[in-house]
Amino acid sequence: MTENIDYDNLKKRGFLKQKQEGFFILRVRMRHGVYNATDLNKLAEISNKYAKGFLHATTRQGLEIPFVKFEDIEKLEKELKDAGIEAGTSGPRLRTTTCCPGNNWCKSGLVNTFSFYDRIENELGIKCAMDLPHKFKIAISGCPNICTRAQNSEIGLHGAVGGYVVYLGGCGGRTPYQGFKLEKVLTEDEALSIIKNVVAFYKQNAKPRQRLALLIEDTGKDVFLKAAMRGI
Asked: Are residues 128 and 163 in the same domain?
């Protein structure tokens, strides 16, 4: 049976092949990283029903349930959909955008990270599981404390007096890169334009399995910045 399994399709749907033979890890996400009590109760119920009764918190504000059997995946997906819980993703795609609470309840927050997150998804159509040449991450922080480590994502932003500071070209992994900082403090609309431009440039120009940092090295920073700042 295993030779007929489309593992990449399962990755896109949030199911990762596990170390233990025959099992998968389900990753889920919620908008803004906010899970209400109903969501958590449902995920606990799913874990008890289809796995081993526990959940693990990921570094990108998701939750994962290991020890899911392949034959239970479709039934589990239906329960998630009915509950309004979204799956995460893996593979060569846009990962879950992370954001801190911003000024919704943090005393240090300077911007509304939740509404900005919504604009990225709803206005730009840039959302988790978007197919890209390789993994791609966006992180939003509400203030210069940068608790989401925005410098270590392909696109990172933090709130500032007057708007947003943007970092580009960061990544983790075995060869980490620190994103470089744009000197101008940008308005929210300008920051959205940069996100749109950078994702489009990456999608059009990156080779398979090439992170944004390496694409910038290949094309040259000036060429990349010209494309990123188009219309600003």
From this structure: yes
